[in-house]
Write a structure and sequence with these properties.
Length: 171
């Protein structure tokens, strides 16, 4: 390098989808043998970037039977997956089951490297589940392979129920 000159190196890469810690990169320069550097304190530079995970969470829900039959069992199947770009942990999955469905119980099953978290089953119409790991599964439609969660919600439709049943799950 000539006196007063500079050289620029550009390094590119892809950060692992599971990364959550700061990304620290240090570059340094040293003079060749036989050359002295009057100020070696400026021969190192560090860049420190914090992680900003991002996830496109998806949820799908179907009921069976459809249409429902008053006085008979009804099952909702909820699938939750993460289209990325980052793997996440701790997504909150909620579902408030209509009061006209009684004896509600639910269970979570994980596929691939996904995990249901610390609670994988419960009862009652107010479902709240904090998921464990949701790795990236970049598929636009409800998955049948890869990493995802399936929450199965079962109960009985009250005999006096009429009209449409509306039930929305969220993540």
């Amino acid at each position: 390098i000539v006196s007063g000159g500079s050289v620029t190196y550009t390094v590119t890469g892809t950060v692992d989808a599971t990364a959550t810690a700061n990304l620290v990169n240090t570059a340094s320069v040293a003079p060749p043998a036989g050359v002295s550097d009057p100020d070696s304190a400026n021969n190192t530079a560090t860049d420190n970037d914090s992680a900003a995970p991002s996830a496109d969470l998806m949820v799908d829900k179907i009921s069976s039977p459809n249409p429902y039959v008053p006085g008979q069992p009804l099952t909702y199947t909820i699938k939750v997956w993460n289209r990325g770009p980052s793997q996440i942990t701790g997504a909150l999955i909620t579902d408030t089951v209509p009061a006209s469905i009684t004896g509600v119980s639910w269970s979570c099953t994980a596929a691939g490297s996904a995990s249901c978290g610390t609670t994988s089953a419960g009862t009652g119409n107010a479902i709240s589940l904090t998921a464990g790991a949701l790795p990236v599964n970049n598929i636009a439609t409800p998955p049948t392979s890869g990493d995802y969660l399936t929450i199965t919600v079962s109960g009985t439709v009250a005999s006096a129920t009429t009209g449409n049943l509306s039930n929305t799950a969220g993540v």
